[in-house]
Amino acid sequence: GYAPDSFRETRDHLKSLGYTEDELLAAGLIKRSEKGGTFDFFRHRVMIPIFDLRGNVIAFSGRKLDPEQPGGKYVNSPETLVYKKSRTLFALNFAKKSQTRRYILCEGNLDAISMHQAGFTNAVASLGTAFTSQHAGVLKRYTDQVILTYDSDGAGIKAALRAIPILRDAGISARVLNMKPYKDPDEFIRTYGRDRFEAVLEGTATPLEFKLAKAVKKYDLRNDAQRLQYVDEAIGILAGSAVSPTARDVYAGRIAEQTGIDKKAVLVQLERAVRGAGRRA
User: CA-CA distance, 73 to 130, in Å (whole number)?
Assistant: First the structure.
């Protein structure tokens, strides 16, 4: 309920509550300049509070208002005794109250806020760091399934590919949302609305299908050499995954349709790759 007009007013207000300058420095709310003075670390930024699982504010995230403003798009509080970004998930204190065991993992806190505004209260996000095994360990207490809604650009795809094995190792099944041509959930929801987004959530691709879809885009299937390169990569992906014989038959048929190569030939190569992967394991 406090709306300061300036950093000096904020600092004076906090000091009036009994906080010392050293405590404000330790909390990361202020920084010391080269000249020895102090300045507001979050100046000219939208302030977003970060809560722990009990609902206590333990840190802040700040998004800059002016694109020309120096510094990164986001800045986060430094790690403290109560804030460890490698195991803190934004909005988990709210998501844990949702009535579902399926969570939505967003790339940033504003994406998670947009999801909650649209009614998807099971959305969370990591904070200023890549998704870690510690994050997955925390999530495992509340969910067995996660839908990744990372941005559809190159960086978002790489982040999703890194997160998938981390989630799998924690015993959490991962599904990847395809939002193209839209960049993020907020853009998709503003274009099509909440109901359409919910329908897309129900039909998300599995991690295996996500990897295969990413692989096929790298090749011109009209070119014989590239068509064979795609088959080799797709078979490598399938051989490295825990795919049942039935699923292998289905995916071999799909690869055959995409490339015009006989399905039996694809299956023979796939079976050899699966046996080779088993021997290496």
Answer: 16
Residue 43 in contact with residue 7, Cβ under 8 Å?
yes
Bridge partners of 176? 148, 205
Cis peptide before 181 (omega within 30 of 0): yes
The sign one gets for the Cα dihedral 202, 207, 209, 215 is positive
Predicted confidence (pLDDT) per residue in 31-87, tens digit: 888 888 888 888 888 889 999 999 999 999 988 888 887 777 888 898 998 999 999
How far apart, in Å, do the first and last CA atoms of the chain sit?
59
- Residue 174 corresponds to which tokens in the numbers above? 């991962």
What is this structure's pTM? 0.74
Residue 1: pLDDT band with limits 50, 70, 90: very low
Q: What is the mean pLDDT of residues 89-99?
A: 94
| Distance from C-alpha of 149 to C-alpha of 86, rounded to nearest angstrom | 19
